């Protein structure tokens, strides 16, 4: 009886070892699935967030792609009260500067469609700055 238990224990240990090794190995099927997932992500199904297009204080023009977000740098001392407008809201959806949860956010926007638009920043004193924006596919 003891021999039978020992043999059963050894057999169970061997099967467990095989199962663990099989779980750690990669098969060609899972590689194909990973390749398909990668191809799907490249085809536009990706949820990866790209960094915004940064527009510095001295820039008068910028280029972006459809779907890009814009971050317009404004000096902190005039950030409150600075507004941004788009010459074509169908091409660029703008977001105003704001303070939220103790953080200060620059004005910006999202590029919606290909074309050309002008963003106009107006500071609290009424001074304006135009940024010519070219949006590509």
Protein structure class: alpha+beta
The CATH architecture of the largest domain comes to Sandwich
Total beta strands: 10
Strand order of the largest sheet: 1-3-8-5
- Please work out how many helical segments DSSP would assign: 3
Q: Judging from the principal axes of the Cα atoms, what is the shape?
A: globular
**Poorly predicted tracts of residues:** 1-42
Classify the helix fraction into a percent range. Answer: 25-40%
Largest sheet: 4 strands, mixed
**CATH-derived topology of the largest domain:** Immunoglobulin-like
Using only C-alpha atoms, the radius of gyration works out to: 28 Å
Order of helices and strands: HHEEEHEEEEEEE
Give the C-level CATH assignment of the largest domain. Answer: Mainly Beta
Strand content: 25-35%
Can you walk me through this structure?
With 137 residues, this protein is an alpha+beta fold. The chain has two domains: 2-45; 53-136, Immunoglobulin-like (Sandwich). The chain has helices spanning 2-24, 28-45, 76-79; strands at residues 53-55, 61-65, 69-72, 83-86, 92-95, 98-100, 103-105, 108-111, 115-122, 128-136. The strands form three sheets. Strands 1-3-8-5 form a four-stranded mixed beta sheet, with no helix packed on it. Strands 2-10-9-4 form a four-stranded mixed beta sheet, with no helix packed on it. A two-stranded antiparallel sheet has the order 6-7. A hairpin with a 5-residue loop joins strand 9 and strand 10 (128-136). Residues 1-42 have low confidence and may be disordered.
């Amino acid at each position: 009886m003891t021999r039978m238990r020992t043999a059963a224990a050894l057999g169970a240990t061997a099967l467990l070892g095989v199962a663990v090794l099989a779980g750690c190995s990669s098969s060609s099927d899972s590689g194909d699935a990973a390749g398909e997932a990668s191809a799907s992500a490249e085809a536009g199904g990706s949820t990866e967030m790209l960094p915004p297009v940064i527009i510095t204080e001295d820039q008068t023009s910028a280029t972006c792609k459809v779907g890009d977000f814009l971050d317009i740098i404004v000096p902190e001392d005039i950030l409150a009260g600075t507004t941004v407008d788009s010459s074509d809201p169908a091409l660029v959806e703008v977001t105003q500067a704001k303070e939220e949860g103790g953080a200060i956010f620059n004005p910006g926007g999202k590029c919606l469609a290909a074309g050309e638009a002008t963003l106009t920043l107006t500071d609290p004193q009424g001074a304006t700055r135009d940024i010519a924006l070219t949006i590509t596919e």
